[in-house]
Amino acid sequence: MNGEEKIPKTMEEELKCKYEGKLYQVGITIPIDDDHEKEYSYRFKRPSVPSYDRYVKTAAQGITKASKAFMLDAVIDEDRERLAKDMEENPGIAITIGNKLTEILGLTNTANLKKL
User: Fold this and answer.
1) What is the pTM of this model?
2) pLDDT at residue 1 in the model
């Protein structure tokens, strides 16, 4: 690269460099009333196995609390404060997005079982 370091040109590129390209964006739409919706979007690092283990261990004590902790472990620093505030206002966000994050680690309903 002739001695020149590539400089990120956009915020997204900058974040990909900071988090070594392992970023996920999860978005959801929540109905406010029959005529209005609000969109939420957050960026996450790939959840770690120890974070997932804590999630599974604490889920029996309360799925919302466990999902909140799991998400705050994985959310990027730049979105953490906004996510925490939004989860206080809409606690279901924790469960909905938490489920998507567990899919990254292989917890999914798309497995098939066949009798041979």
Assistant:
1) 0.77
2) 47
